Amino acid sequence: MGTVNLSNIPTRAPDDLDRDEAERITRQRAQRIAELHQLLVAEREYAVLIVLQGMDASGKDGAMRNVFGECSPFGLRAVPWKKPTEEEFDHDFLWRIHKQVPAKGEMVIFNRSHYEDVLVQRVHGWITEEQVSKRLASINAFEHLLAYDNQTLILKFYLHISKEQQREELMERLEEPDKFYKHNDGDWKEREHWDAYRAAYEDAISRSEIPWHIVGVDQRWYRDYIMTEIIVDALEKLNMQWPKLVTNFKDKK
Amino acid sequence: MGTVNLSNIPTRAPDDLDRDEAERITRQRAQRIAELHQLLVAEREYAVLIVLQGMDASGKDGAMRNVFGECSPFGLRAVPWKKPTEEEFDHDFLWRIHKQVPAKGEMVIFNRSHYEDVLVQRVHGWITEEQVSKRLASINAFEHLLAYDNQTLILKFYLHISKEQQREELMERLEEPDKFYKHNDGDWKEREHWDAYRAAYEDAISRSEIPWHIVGVDQRWYRDYIMTEIIVDALEKLNMQWPKLVTNFKDKK
């Protein structure tokens, strides 16, 4: 999608956006997403894949809660991607991903995704640059397949957090009892590779054929405001229709 | 792999090949395949995918029995591909295929495969020519992924039967009690599309990046002779080794 320089993209809301007004609109849109999701399930013509990527503490969990929280659980599935199992490591990196893609009539949210395989593995030098290039090409071919052969709408979000804001978020996990469960010493270790992760993200986003949405997330209310806007717009564009009645029922007494 | 014209490729053994001698060699090679398969399982560095395609009654089942019959069932899996289920139809054509590809240390035999989706669907006009081209590109990208990202050796066989021989084989299914279970009226129906299938096969084989092996199968003993030769050669080339002993065991009393 052309070369992306994340440093040039703000992580915060524009000054003239009113927070209360934005939150009001976000609630409406979340409701609209739930309605469109019902239509998706009923029509069963399209599949929807939402990809959430971002640095640690960039607010992926909160985004799921606030953006999709109004949707029915039927036809909705959240898939959190962790370190591969031994069985998964014995396959190509897209094997476990492909199994979990949405069927027609389904919306699936990937919390992290196949992009981790060109991020964490690259930052730590576990794969060669040649392997990275092959994987980025495979990702494009894979996403293309989902799109043309199963009518899959793919919406990819990079949750764009500043380094300072990440520090604040990680600190809260050490200080607030209802966030202790999210704390992981390893996140502070990964933070030391901030610049390498940023470079890997910029490259992955730049070389991606299906474009990414880069969303400033330093204020969580702004993240939800933008994400709901993008998702409502994209779902509206599908122009989904309630299926026509099919019946042989004749008894009208 | 360059344009293939099946009419120019014989379906029978060369006249100077002695059948008894060929069968003796085939038995030795089938034994060697079993040994190499043990090494594959033990070393767990490579995956092996065998694809069997061919017209109805071209001898796919028999090939499995005679070529892989000496192998241990552990680390070996035969996957017969039938008409997709409703759940499978709600996904892209490679979704169900990807789930079944071999892990490292495993040999998987596809009886029919992802190629059916550019054969039967094309012959019957269920997909457009544009869709066929996209699918052939996706197949190449998919096989490439298996090869580079999971060290998968892919051996694809087109079992090349003559139209006359197919008639004989199908007739046997109507006449011999131990073949009744294979009979299907639909096979005679598909036979009417012989030329269209041949053209679709030639095109799929020609546009495939990983080359196909075209094996004359009018004499089943010749099919086994050639297939075992190709498979032994390919497995030998992997140069697999028994893993070294890894131990902290010190007690030698």
Instruction: Kindly estimate the percentage of residues of chain A that lie in beta strands according to DSSP.
Output: 5-15%
Radius of gyration of chain A: 20 Å
Quantity of strands of chain A, as a count: 5
CATH superfamily of chain A: P-loop containing nucleotide triphosphate hydrolases
Might you state the CATH topology name of chain A?
Answer: Rossmann fold
Global geometry of chain A: globular
The total of helices of chain A stands at 10
Q: Roughly how much helix do the residues of chain A carry, as a percent range?
A: 40-55%
Largest interface: A-B, 29 and 29 residues
Oligomer: homodimer
Largest sheet of chain A: 5 strands, parallel
Major β-sheet strand ordering of chain A: 2-3-1-4-5
Head-to-tail CA distance between termini of chain A = 61 Å
User: Class of chain A in CATH?
Assistant: Alpha Beta
Q: Indicate the structural class of chain A.
A: alpha/beta
Count of discrete structural domains of chain A: 1
- Which residues of chain A form runs of ≥5 with pLDDT under 50? none
Order of helices and strands of chain A: HEHEHHEHHEHHHEH
Family (chains A, B): Belongs to the polyphosphate kinase 2 (PPK2) family. Class I subfamily.
InterPro entries (chains A, B): P-loop_NTPase, Polyphosphate_phosphotransfera, PPK2-rel_1, PPK2-related
GO molecular function, one term (chains A, B): polyphosphate kinase activity
Keywords (chains A, B): Kinase, Transferase
